[in-house]
Protein 1
Amino acid sequence: MEKDVSDARQLLGIKGASETKNGWKLRLQLMKPITWIPLLWGVICGAAASGNYNWTFSNVLASLACMIMSGPLLAGYTQTINDYYDREIDAINEPNRPIPSGAISLFQVKLQIWALLILGLLVAYGLDIWANHQTPSVFLLALGGSFVSFIYSAPPLKLKQNGWLGNYALGASYIALPWWAGQALFGHLTWVTSILTLAYSLAGLGIAVINDFKSVEGDKALGLQSLPVVFGIKNASFISAGMIDIFQLAMVVVLIFIGQNLASVILILLIIPQITFQDIWLLRDPLKFDVKYQASAQPFLILGMLVTALAIGHSPLSSF
């Protein structure tokens, strides 16, 4: 049983994974499939927020292509390039990961980075052609997101060195960018919804902090100013919970303001179990229970995103 769990962790790219020599499994581990879920969901939310999505065969194929672009390709690119530049930190925190363990060569990792990036950009451009965009908005979003991913991990900027800036960049990449891509693909990306999703990304900042708990030892050794390093693990867990809750509650206020009262009530009902799981797992021992917390609380967060997106799609906000 423990081996099965360890093997599953290996394929999903979660800490505590079993070691393997299988090349494809190593490449998949670098891409961390567990991190694709918010991006796939973000595309769905963007399509819902457009107010124009219809369940046609063509639209379903386009949405699946947009999910593949956002998740396996560009999120996979993001995770692979992050592992490439974090190999010294991983040698301290997770020495059994593919790169520090020597299970895969740096040349193969570089090939994977370029392959995922180029394929992701090609799919993005193809989606613009499908949508008859005069301005290749999906391609530009993919290109911009890929650039943010690069400067997040790579020197000299290496945004992740700054806990606030790096985590917000990560949160925006996982919430705002796929949402924008889905909305631009099936409708029009508006300034109002762009600002709202950037605000929602501050909840994503709280989620991003959780990923820093497992890396505290290596971050301290290499001088990275993650929030757990700067404020301590206990205080950082409260910051994480606060960011997640406060900015979702801010969306409740927005939904009430635009007359989407039922959606605001549903969103509150989805926030309550998140707070409960924060008390059970996150605030008690984030180092030990980080995976359990994300598995239990994150479904309510992403369902809340969809509720918000559907409400926006059925309100005047979808048109300006």
Note: Residues 2-319 form a domain with the Farnesyl Diphosphate Synthase fold (CATH 1.10.600).
Protein 2
Amino acid sequence: MNTDGLIAELAASAPPVKRLAPPMTRAFVWLLAVAAIAAVPIILLSNLHVWAGRASHPRMALELAATLATGIAGVIAAFHLSIPDRSPRWALLPLPFALVWAASTGLGCWQTLAEQDKRGWGLFQSSDCFVVLMIVGIPMAGLLLLSLRRARPLQPRLVATVGAAGVAGLAAFVLQFFHPFDVTVMDLGAHLAGLLVLFAVLNLSARLGLAGRA
């Protein structure tokens, strides 16, 4: 069979393909679904009055805004990067927000050094933070990967890395509703450990679930 005949046969027998919605639409739907799911434990289990009091402090308000912005920007960038014709510069979208998040958190840790001295420097005193990040972040990471698989990204590791930044930001934002005091140095260590696990989980899952789909 010549090439033209093969193309005609494939075109005649191929099943119809449902076109994906635009990346921004898919990201918005994903974020809306995650917000609806996260709202249930936040409303039922967190102390919103305490959270509102902490959020009224300018530095804390900046940290919360930067954390949430990092999460949203990372998810949006991941959906764009999952499409083959998108520029890799989308990976830079969450970077400025992540830098502000890191700077404001670092400043908060510096301001709470005296409190850390009173609480002590026990290695596992902030294990609850790590557990909450895992409970929130791992299902979120799985949901994001399921949503990205249909796009068949050409650079799965880049998509997973940017998506991990988004999941990390969103998980850290949710954690703040259950964190009645400012982040200390040991808390920051637990947060970083949790975020590294999320990055590792997403990148490993990308190799297994997204790689080879070009």
Note: The radius of gyration is 20 Å.
Protein 3
Amino acid sequence: MHDIELGLVQERFADLVWANEPVASGELVKLSAEAFGWKKPTTYTVLRKLCEKGLLKNENGIVSSVISRDEFYSKRSEQIVTESYGGSLPSFIAAFISRKKLSTEEAQEIQQMIDAFKK
């Protein structure tokens, strides 16, 4: 997957699609009006831009994702670690937990993930 940069509005729209896909484009217009107060042209403009970026597709009036929500946010997390912490996951985790202490349950869950993914 290539890097896809989204603004806040595009990300919120993508979340709406992911939550409702596959969704008819007419229904997506209604959902966008309810969620964001958008008119039809705004919905189609944002949809077109996300299709051009390769995140969504609109085939025969049915909108769905090309990249899953989990895949997108996973890649985005990797980008943050790479760009902000020089690719160091331990540095990212240290920065995160320095502001928010982990509960015993969270620490155990993270340890289980580490144990499961060790090389």
Note: The radius of gyration is 18 Å.
Protein 4
Amino acid sequence: MDYVLFGIQGSGKGTQGTILAQAIGANYFETGARLRELSQEDSELGKKVKSIIESGKLVPTEVVMEIVEDFAHRANASTPIIFDGIPRSEEQRVALEALLKKLGRNYIGLFFKLDRDAAIARLTTRRLCPVDKKAFPASFTGDLCPEHNEPLVTRSDDTPESITTRLDLFEKETMPIIEKWKAAEKIIEIDASPAIDEVTKKMLHKL
């Protein structure tokens, strides 16, 4: 079973997805990270991705699906994949469903539900590790990343205006996907408002 993560920024889906991957031994596909990795490879797909990134253009859905298929072929067929950052639009939903069907991979969505005000509060107070971009909430009292010993930083685009734009886009483009999968009984909803450990317990219990 593959898992597709959904949640507005600030919901902690990346944190919980990483925990889940470690718990079940899954491969983790994060769209942005995979694009960056491929752009460093001396392969036909890597060169294509690098060219698109350097041009400043958005990566077309068909290329994203090519990247997903490449990732799936490199992974063990029996090992679950956790998808983070895809699908974000109706076009991507249709393409991803078709690809997973073609590959014979079953899947379900995990929706980390958090209300808008809570998301804004988290995003405007969080800090990130500059090395791996791991987010630390306001409750974290240290100034250094425990793993990399680097000073934590604030994202330059974590401004109220930018956050509002990103949340609006999620509601417009991604929420309809979640509603469609809910109707098809392909969504497990998880309350993302408690502390990280509590959300993890809820997630593992539901799975």
Note: The mean pLDDT is 91.
